[in-house]
Design brief:
This protein has helices at residues 9-31, 34-53, 92-100, 125-138, 151-163, 193-216, 231-243, 246-258, 262-266, 289-295, 311-314, 316-328; strands spanning 58-60, 66-72, 77-81, 104-108, 144-149, 168-174, 272-277, 299-304. The longest helix is centred in the middle third of the chain and has 24 residues, at 193-216. The protein is globular. The chain folds into 2 domains: 9-50; 59-328, Rossmann fold. Helix 4 (125-138) crosses helix 5 (151-163) and helix 6 packs across helix 7. The relative contact order is 0.12. Strands 1-2-4-3-5-6-7-8 form an 8-stranded mixed β-sheet, sandwiched between helices. By secondary structure, it is α/β, with parallel strands linked by helices.
């Protein structure tokens, strides 16, 4: 009988079993090490981030605010920033139109508006601009046409002032609040702050009625003689406004009226289209669109004769065509 242990089948099998058990034990020790635990946690965090990015159209900012966004179509990207106190749904006519003409249309609900979170703080233009940057950076959007309506125009201007135009190819300002709405020593043509105090008082007294009054009167020019009033459009505006947070929309009145965007506009270095109605009762053209056109290099001003503030609905066919032409140019 041989005494060679290597030639002994029983001994060889015992070596394999012992070696295998040792290897498994080593793997278990490694798997339970602090380094492995940290790697697993990092992997879980990465998967959670990916799931969140691909979930029901929400992006989380650094302060934990959830921003709802919609992303329609494919092609060159157009990003829309909505007005006060509305949401991205106010852009649905333009988003459907642009997506139908070979563009990717993206819009988010500003913090405190629509389906986004309603944080107590951060209802100011600097934060709005940083939130917009978070949306653009998270989705890795490049060479975008950046469109801002009313308060959204201020958001766009402050975005450029704080983050530049490295991801922006063109800008569109529509019925936009820049350069500055409120009257100050440096802006004597602005509206008295008492006018905005009236807005705040009306919101505190009866926000629901206040929003209905705005929509049924000056916003769409329905208070003008011969106006073709649309009750459905009034209802839609009221519904979007009431989705926003009371505190957020209240604070936003100060943000859109008292923020000075003069220096932001001077930093625009891409082709810019400025669209404004000459019967805008909310943001009068002589203190906004006309002045912005003088401050922005490479700007083109389109004045819609007789158009109200909400021209994206009352004049949507004309505006959609102008937007598409500018995007394609």
């Amino acid at each position: 009988m041989s005494t060679n242990k290597q030639a002994n089948p029983t001994y060889a099998r015992r070596n394999v079993l012992v070696g295998g058990a040792a290897a498994v034990g080593a793997l278990l020790v490694a798997a339970n090490s602090p380094e492995a635990a940290a790697a697993r946690a990092s992997g879980r965090a990465a998967r959670a981030d990916a799931a969140r990015a691909a979930s029901a159209s929400t992006i989380v900012t650094r302060d934990g605010t959830q921003l709802y966004y919609k992303d329609w179509g494919t092609g060159p990207t157009v990003v829309f920033c909505h007005g006060w106190p509305l949401s991205s749904d106010s852009w649905e006519s333009q988003m459907l139109f642009m997506a139908g003409h070979g563009y990717r249309a993206v819009a988010h609900d500003r913090r405190g508006h629509g389906r986004s979170s309603q944080p107590w703080n951060g209802n100011d233009m600097d934060t709005y601009a940083d939130d917009l940057a978070t949306v653009i950076d998270t989705l890795d959007l490049k060479d975008i046409v950046l469109v801002g309506f009313s308060t959204g125009g201020g958001e766009v201007a402050r975005y450029v002032g704080r983050h530049g135009t490295k991801r922006v190819s063109k800008i569109v300002l529509v019925s936009a609040v820049p350069p500055l709405m409120a009257r100050t020593p440096r802006n004597p043509r602005g509206l008295p702050v008492e006018e905005f105090d009236k807005l705040r008082a009306a919101q505190l007294a009866n926000r629901s009625q206040f929003y209905r009054d705005v929509a049924s009167g000056p916003f769409y020019g329905f208070n003008r003689p011969q106006a073709q009033v649309s009750p459905a459009l009034i209802d839609a505006w009221w519904r979007l406004g009431m989705q926003g947070g009371h505190k957020n929309t209240y604070d936003s009145i100060k943000a859109f009226s008292e923020t000075d965007f003069t220096e932001d506009l001077k930093k625009f270095d891409v082709p810019t289209l400025i669209v404004h109605g000459d019967d805008d009762q909310i943001v009068p053209i002589d203190i906004s669109g006309l002045l912005s056109a003088k401050l922005v290099p490479q700007s083109k001003l389109l004045v819609y004769s007789g158009a109200p503030h909400g021209l994206t609905e009352t004049h949507k066919d004309r505006f959609n065509a102008d937007l598409l032409e500018f995007a394609r140019a």
